[in-house]
Every structure is written in C-alpha cells, then in structure tokens.
Amino acid sequence: MTTGPGASVYMPPEATAPAASNIQMSKYDASVDIFSIGVVSIFTIGEIFPCDPLAPTFADEKSGVVVARTELQRRSHYMRNVNEQLRACGQLRGDHPLIRLIQQCLQNFPSKRPGIREVLRLLEEARAGVRDEGSERNKRELVRALQTQPRNQNLERVLRDLVTENAHLQSRVQAKERELATAQQQLRRNVSLKDDYVAQ
C-alpha cells in the first residue's frame, strides 16, 4: 500500500468524499486497493480508460431530489465495453466471474468489497473458464472472434497480469498481517512487564 489514496479515477467514494481531504491512514486499508482492482479491470478488459469526473451524486429527473449514485451506476457505460469484449471472445455468459469481480470490487461501502482471497478466486475461476470453455463450437467461435478482432487476443494476458498483480497485493496483505502479529506480541510483552513491575 502507498501512503496516499492515489489518482482520483481509482479512488473509492470514501477517499473522494469532501470529508476525505484529510484522509486518516487508519481508514485507508486494503479495501481501497480492492476498489482499484475493479477500476483497473474495467480499463484492461474494456480497453477504455475510465476517466469520468468525480460525481458521486445526481439529481433524480422526476423529483429533482439529489440522490446518492453508486460507483456501478457512475461507471455503467464502461461496463458495456467489458461486456462487448467478453462477448467478442465468446466468453460472455450470464454470470461471468470477471463481471462479478468488477461489481464486487466497485461496491460503495468498503465492508461489502471482497477480500484479496475472493478476488483471486474469481480471477482463477475466470481463467479456468477461458481455458476450459466447453464444446468445439465454442472453440471455433473463439478462434473466429480472435481472428476478426485481434485486440481481443490480450484477454488471457490481461487475466494473467491481474492474477500476478493480485498475488503481489496478497503478499503485501500477508506482510501487514505479520507486522500486526509482531506488534501484538510486543504489546503483550510490554503489558506483562508492566504487570510484573506493578506487582513488585
């Protein structure tokens, strides 16, 4: 993790809210990076850079009332590009793991975003789907789509890159967990020493 929330296009709502101008590092955790994975996935799979201006709210057309706007709503036109790319590769089906991954990562509330293990599971599921997708007909359709749209040949590479990036994130999370465990042990030792001192 970095020491700041990063570029605004990758920031989750909690980092871009007006009150977040003095974001406290205690509130900046892995869920911010998980959100960024959703944005990067849109960019790499949809082949378009998601650069909407920050606009977390919108006015309801009928009533004129300002309503909270979810990140999925704000970025829905980018999701159409993702769907088109997956369809061109013969991969679009009702509940594709990459669509679920993006939808889960872009949740407005950090507590609703998946952990890194769930992100990796969905990436592996998508990778297996690309590798093992059914019949000869599907394979022929995939070959035809790749021949007619060469830019879609990058899908497998994109998935590998995402898996690699997420492996790095997981290793950073594990390092932070080890640091926390070490700090907890030190705290217990300090409390024990204090108790021993008080007892004397």
From TrEMBL:
Protein kinase domain location: 1-127
One Gene Ontology term of the molecular function aspect: protein kinase activity
Species the sequence originates in: Geodia barretti (Barrett's horny sponge)
Keywords: Coiled coil
Residue stretches in coiled coil: 152-186
Protein name: Protein kinase domain-containing protein
PROSITE patterns: PROTEIN_KINASE_DOM
Domain of life: Eukaryota
